[in-house]
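Why this split exists: single-chain examples teach little about how molecules sit against one another. For that reason, every record in the complexes split bundles all components of an assembly together and asks for one structure covering all of them. Below is a record exactly as it appears in the raw files.
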Amino acid sequence: MAEQKTVTFVIERQDGPDQKPYTQEFDVPYNPALNVVAALMEIQKNPVTRDGKRVAPVVWECNCLEKVCGACMMVINGKAQQACCALVAQLKQPVHLAPARTFPVIRDLLIDRTVMFESLKRIHGWINVDGSWKVHEAPRQNPYTAQTAYEISHCMTCGCCLEACPNVGPQSDFIGPAPVVQAYLFNINPMGKYDEPTRLNALMEKGGITSCGNSQNCVQACPKNIKLTTYLAQLNRDVNMQALKNIFNN
Amino acid sequence: MAKATAKNRIAVVGGGISGLMATLKICEAGGEVDLFSYCPPKRSHSLCAQGGMNACMDTKGEGDTTYIHFDDTVYGGDFLADQVAVKGMCEAAPGIVEMFDRMGVPFTRTAEGVLDLRNFGGQKKKRTVFAGSTTGQQLLYALDEQVRKWETKGQVHTYIFWEFIKIIKNKQGVCRGMVAQNMNSMEIKAFREDAVILATGGPGQIFGLCTASTICNGSAVGAVYAQGAHIGNPEFIQIHPTAIPGTDKNRLMSEACRGEGGRIWVYKNGQPWYFLEEKYPDYGNLVPRDIASREIFDVCVNQGLGVDGENKVYLDLSHIPADYLERKLGGILEMYSEFMGQDPRKVPMTIYPSVHYSMGGIWVDREHNTNIPGLMASGECDYQYHGANRLGANSLLSAAYSGTIVGPVAMKWATRCNKLREMEGWLARKSKGESLMAAQEKAIAQPSDSDLRLYEESLKEARSIHMVMQPKIESDGTEKPPVIDQNNLYALRMEMGDELTDEELEAARQECVNEFENILQMNGEENAHELHQELGRLMNKYVTIERVNKDLDFCFGEVKKILARWNNIGVTDRGHWANQEAMFVRQLRNMILYALVITKAARMRDESRGAHFKREFPNRDDEHFMKITVADYDPKTEEPVITYEDFDHSLIKPRARTYGSK
């Protein structure tokens, strides 16, 4: 078999939020280690389509290229994933790239994920410390619980799980698996526990955990292998308990 | 007259660990922050720090002390760091760890539930706290969460996806504002600020291939350098010994691999040769990064013993139990498998040194003030703490620590700005009130048309002016006239100078708009990204592990040519919406200016010290070069002017830095 020289990318582009999408095709020099971000960088250097038209380079977001920052999430051959670790050698060709349309598209593959960060405010996604100054010694923690916290704390707010979730979208106000599960992270912290009722009550509201349809797509989409459905189930129990407490305490 | 704002306003540029730490400190002191960032803070480059953060916790029964941490850091930095500053950092470290712990960072813990510690390069004691192999990510997230809390309280105003363009100085040369651009709408806006803190990270992208994120381009540093900010020790660029070479980036393989027992070797005469362990029996694989990188370079380039004849060596973890590896290093081993298609639990990894960190950066004093009043810098973009070589796991520490220093310093400065604003405002109103009253009296005595008009006007204002001129009535009924201490007023005027006028703000904005519009019109032959790649190749080839004067001269000339070629760039995207290409063109120019600084400073330092190595001058020359390099921009030549400055090294007497080599 002849060695592959180029790889074709079919890219869904869009000039602005209210513009019509269109596709363009690009040929990029192939190498076995090529990933999707590296390919997009090649297009930047020579933004010429397959039919020889010089165009504006494709716009997308990326930072770390190590699958920790979460920036370069896009839909590659129909699946939401990080572009930096999508190795072309493992992808069906031509490679189709599209923006994750669960989020508003800014331009080309660049999307607006502000809503995810706003949701973190809603679930009180922080430990309510008195201050950054010296207050007291930090509490000891069960090393096993800490390991669970470490797992959940890998969530890089990339949005794969929101893109994969059938309940996130215009038809529902579900804030999505990632922000919901973050509530669990803070609830299992010895000091974060104090605000557990606040978080659980926030999850009871519209768009909270009751909007989860248990499709289990999220856990398969998570690039960090966070056991999202396990923690969603746990939170579901916790929210129900809190609801009962609310009834009896009132 | 500029409108007086009621509250202090401080701009923090950069949402990494240092910027967020500074933001927290300012909010806690009651200030307000305009937080500018290229990306949501959660995506800042701090999250690429893997191995951990140094702090003398001494929970391993090894008798570790902050003094040993201090000594290791100074020795590791080859005696080029301000020792008083370093001492302060090492002493503060355990407290910073405790703070992060309280904020919920999921540190890896021992069976007893306390923080685990691991070994790291250049230190014989276990001193590195860590969260698996993603410590930076976890520390960054904790600060991001705390800052989000302050955002909900209205004290943090985020400008996410805004790019810093430049600072604005008043007539007296004091930084009183900045210009930034929205990366989507392309809107360019001038901001009036009491102080500007740059926490914009390192300049790795100047070298093209490096372990840094694509956003670590050093552009902001280049911009303020061209506006007169000095750069300190720019030639000290850390080459990390263990990275996975790539075509888009070199991915870091943490020093923690060696901290947890990883061994470096190559085949020599058919047998594994553990060259670091052999030459440095005391430290073994955990010699500091500059030494490990040079040895690997020597084995591959000079001795030709690299794996498969290529420039790479083995980093071997395969002798360590898989479950231990999973718990301590899981994240990065998964990354290696993902990108290289091999399981490092079973076969040795192949790695090679890569540009990783800049010890140099914007010159600051111990309080992180730059030489431009009102402009501060912290984190990797400053030059403090690491001297000629940074110890692994000291970067997260210096990022966080410098944030705790610069935040309160900026707040103090801003409070003084506010005080001056208050006094000037009152004096201005008082003098206006007095002239209106004089006009009233004149109008009553000798009514004329113009005086009558003035009289009517003054009636409108009289009441409010009158109020101002009366002593303030406090809520408890006591009278408290505003204190105008003439000495203090004079001192503050000398220090801060004038408030920026609306005209000055608009002029600064317009200048940036014109510059950007000019970029959109660029119609030359060069592609900005190609040019960047050329710059990176040059810098990587000539200004990294081994430096040669003749080559540095050549490199400097070539980079100057690239600077000239920048004018011949052609852009394909001329639009005013999310135009990444045009923004990159602007960044690239700053990067080229910074590259000239690094190259020139390397050329001038005729000695070998830490990460800076010249075979022509293989020894450290304390007599001539135990000095801070200071680079100042010369607008005429667009080149740096290099001078040297003494610094405080009074606490630990310089000694030969051998790491017990045989």
